[in-house]
Records
---
Amino acid sequence: MSAPDSLTLTRRFKAPRERVFAAFTTIEAIGLWLGPESCGVTGGRMDFQVGGTYLYQMKTPHGDMELRGTYREISPPSRLVFTWQWVEDDAPLTTVTVDLTEVGEDTELTLTQTGFTSAESAGNHAHGWSGSFDRLDNFLAA
């Protein structure tokens, strides 16, 4: 993890870049992997286009919460940039950048999230994304 107001995580997946990118493009796919094991998407909507928004209803250990954001950049199959904000707890608006790079037949995903107001929040999100990537790895292997 880098500075307290941001985090960067890198993970390699045994899947083509197009398939990894596609995992971010529909509510059905997102619902199968977003969130660590103790969390999950239970519903929502998404308008996957630049300027489009998403809203995910999430089950978490802290109760039901909603997550919202706006797509700022969509460059298939290499890059996504979107905002990220938990609705219920007055969380700051953060920005998530996902870069996908081909490494042979694999894909390296680098996620950077900026705009945190504390190191604790950045750490909590690092934990959440790490668990999500474990689930994404299983999703892509299926």
Note: The beta strands are 6-13, 40-46, 53-60, 63-75, 79-86, 94-103, 106-114.
---
Amino acid sequence: MTHIIRTAVCATGAWKAVLLVLIGIVCYLTLTPKPPPGIDLGWDKLNHVAGFAALGFASCLGYPESWRRRASVLGAMVALGGLIEVLQFWVPGRSSEWGDLLADAIGVGVGTFIAVLLLRLLLGSPARAG
């Protein structure tokens, strides 16, 4: 069973694809005037943390080459949060908030922490997954 989990964690190409899908989902949910009911976690900031934690997690597993490369991709995820906040200014029923960007950055950090912890536990190395 551990071998299967290790193989899944090391599938960087698959994690890059997951990351692209997650980016699409996050963009849709944050830029649509009225998101589908039932996906709200009950607090706007928690929604941001959860969505961007998923992006941080997939980013870490998709780009394990080096800390510099990983930091670039994670920075891009935070920048995506900033872009979303700017674009929300023009979306009816949405608002741009610095608090949302902070929640996005916290989410990226949480997802990164979980991915690095998983890599360390399964592979004995926080920097490489493949």
Note: The chain has five helices and no strands.
---
Amino acid sequence: MLSACHGRVEIQCATLRRLVPHLVEHGADEEARKAVANVIRYFDTSARHHHADEGRGPLSCLDRLDGWVRPICLREMIEGLIADHRALEAAWRHLRVLLGRIAAGESTPLATDDVKHSSSLYERHIAREEDEPVADGSAIVERR
């Protein structure tokens, strides 16, 4: 389930990347407003639930591994994933303001750097979850 969500996150990030040049050329036209509304809906709901699911699922399981004594590397991995979530949420709050203006019909530019920053945070986080081996050699989230 979490891996499928990662795929949807990647689709939304691709939409954001396509919006940057579209907004320059066409402004906040109907196509842009619809795309922005879909991105906002996804990140305001599904992505938020995804982070909560991770906190209740794999991260909480890893957090309880071996009782209160965890290997340092596992503790660092958990803390890194939690820090990722905080950075992702902060990046989303920033983008959300801009996207809200576009959804309202303002021809607000969407900075390439903002989109790249947010997308790269998600790419790194997804790679960490899908590639980081845990004690048994499997990944935190199984690849799709």
Note: The first helix runs from residue 2 to 26.
---
Amino acid sequence: MLGDVQVDALREAANIGAGHAATALAELTNRRIMVAVPEVRIESLESVGTMLGDPGAPVCAVLMNVHGDATGRTVQVFPATTAARLTASLLRTREPLFPDEFGPLERSSLKEIGNILVAAYLNALSALTGLTLSMSTPSFAIDMAAAVLTTSYLNFEDVDDHVFAVTALLSLDGSDLPAHFLLIPDEPSLRGLLQALRVG
């Protein structure tokens, strides 16, 4: 288990990333969107699923690989209500029924939103650490919450891998919409990140 100093450093990166994400999303949707970070945890991959709520509930997941000075995977998870509300805001349409009405256009919209959020978090980490971090083209899935943490999506080898897990609240039209950002670095990359933050 990592200590408070490590978690505080990663929380700072998450809060900076949230600010950048809010600005980018507001420009994209032409609406005021605030992004808060009420919870940052570092857990094993095996236990992080409890953050996502009901393991049998369908969610949207935007998945990417991380490249550069640190490598690993990221998963941006949108629960049903969040997915529908964000899609409607971006497309300026009524909220689509989830998951039945999530066709190519809705999926593409959430991939773009996920891309913005992940880029904001990774850019904040890069700024704090001096490490070069880039991400792959996003892939998209609609599946049960528990399923998006399986090897078929993440290609992980060890359920004891540490996960940098951020719960975000996106405030839109008076509603707080939860979303979850998961960064799953390879073990050498996790050590490198913490050393670059001068807390390793």
Note: The mean pLDDT is 88.
